[in-house]
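Lecture 7, part 2: worked example. A protein chain together with C2E.
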Amino acid sequence: MQGGASPKEGWLTPARVVSIAAVCLCVLMLVIQLMGARASAEADGQAALALIEQQPASVSVQAPPSLAAAMAPHQSVLSLSHCAGSQCSTLFAREQAEPCTYGVSFNPQCVAVRSKTNVGYSLLVRFDLLAVLKDIALNMGAVLLVGGVVALWLKSRQAPQQTRAASTQQAKQPSELDALTGLLNRVAFEAALKRHNESEALPTKGSTDGCLMYFDLDRFKIINDTHGHIAGDVVLKTVAKRLKYTLGNDVLIGRLGGDEFAVLLVDVASQATIEQMGRVVIEQVSKPIQIDSITDTVGLSIGAYMIHRGEMGIGDMLHRADLAMYEAKRTGRGRLVFFEEAMDTASRKRAQIQADLKKALEERQMFMAYQPQFDAFDSIRGVESLVRWRHPTRGVVSPDEFIPVAEANGLIVPLGKMVIDMVCADLVALRAQRLQLPYVSMNVSLRQLSDPAFVTDVQEILQRHGLQPTDIEFEITESTAMGGHSGRENVTLRQLSEQGFRIAIDDFGSGYSSIARLQDLKVDKLKIDRVFVQAIGKPNFDPALLELMITLTKRLGIKSVAEGVESVDQVVWLRQAGCQMMQGNLYAEPMTHGQLINWMRLQEGDHSFDDGVWAPTQTLEFAEA
Ligand code: C2E
Ligand code: MG
Ligand code: MG
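Predicted complex, written out as structure tokens:
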């Protein structure tokens, strides 16, 4: 479809083939029937000649009495003239019928039948073509009618294909092509999509008029950040080539901008076919790419929307394919996801949260909850701070709902600053009550760490509250909705670590926290994701991964913290495996600052004999980079 059908293919359509065949058949019928009429006149002439020649030679030029009766049924024979050389005499003639004369006439016509016994004798038969012509006209009419109907039917079937071909024509104008990849640019792709959308919706295979796909590369930002924009361009060109090669020239492919592409498939049989095709495209795009002397890879996330022509504007169609792509990213990347209505609802919810979030920050609707962390001897070693949003109409909103939105729109930066400020104020207030807490953990998103002002902002807040870097631990949370990490975040983390802030890797094992990162950064703690902890003792529990994570922390000389501990069995298993710290609802649920003060007073009472309860954790031994 890309590039369109060749002019030859376009001209010789099935409808035209049928029309030409009908016309040829008519011509053939005309010739055959005319020849038939002539042959019949000749046969009549032969019969008449035989009657004449049965007579004695003396009367051979006269009409035998039986001649008129013999010719009566042969209505097309108008007259018979018997000729000896050039001398002719009329032997039979119907009313007003002329004998044969020389000259050209279309109707009636004359044929000469030569005598086989008398050389030089012949019979001229004048015969009428009118009846034959009427017959021919009737037959031709029937053939043309049937041919015309068939041609029209074929044409109607062909129309959507032509529309497809027209709508998927790859633009030839340089202004319509993306200069880097040679694919359609956004404007040209949208114009082609619009043409397809507005073309007459005729029944096609299945119940859809095609599939609109939104492609977004995974890891592209990392390539750009680590190897530079020229390398990024090489990747985009390679991906474009692979898309063209895999999808074929018949498919409309556009580059919408950056690392986003769109594809319109018009001849699609089923979702299963598209899924299969998506797998092949992802596989091809994910193959290593040679960029000068280095080799790197990108991935591909695909959102797909089954379109129905004329149902909605192309903006809404693209939005739906984009939402499905977002879902593909959110749920692990490198996959194809079809649009579902629920995604639209979720996106509206996100939009609402986004709108409300700005106001929430202005009005300081956020507050902090705290969850204590314990060592293997059930002594409190710190607390993790968890932000909450007291929404004016919805009540308390979980961070799982609004943190991803804040990360996506950048509001996480002012929100993060507000959190650090609130946590520092709470820690100072706690200590003012003579409750000794060695440090508070704070969750920070990668987006915050990529902010060049982050370190100075933190220092400024700490100074304002009279606190030290050792009072704070940062937990790095990686949202899967974010596009990887660049060098900037690592620089920030290294600066924080050098200044004495503790660094913990949160949700280890479930997200993108990689072992490579542990080597790269000075990390104090690994927080083992609660998914692994909560699997302990369950029917298909496989201890291998948990044991591996705990062994890893021991080898690196850093602490392991089990998150989401809910049962005594889990604690027993974790302790035996050598896990150093626990956090979870079994020990204490997250609580407000006021509740924490009361709770700590009780704990202080319980542990008054234990000098180590409120003491800072041991001197940290950073894993070497
Ligand atoms: P996280 O850092 O892994 O926090 C632990 C989450 O597990 C908390 O959910 C906590 O309430 C929950 N949890 C603790 N113990 C248990 C348990 O025994 N069972 C179960 N089922 N859950 C338990 P929460 O407060 O909803 O926070 C969710 C996530 O939101 C956090 O996961 C963190 O990634 C993020 N978050 C929270 N506060 C902040 C913040 O101030 N800044 C940033 N950037 N992210 C935050
Ligand atoms: Mg955390
Ligand atoms: Mg966690």
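DSSP finds 20 helices and 21 strands in the chain. Residues 14-53 form the longest helix (40 residues). Keep this in mind for problem set question 3.
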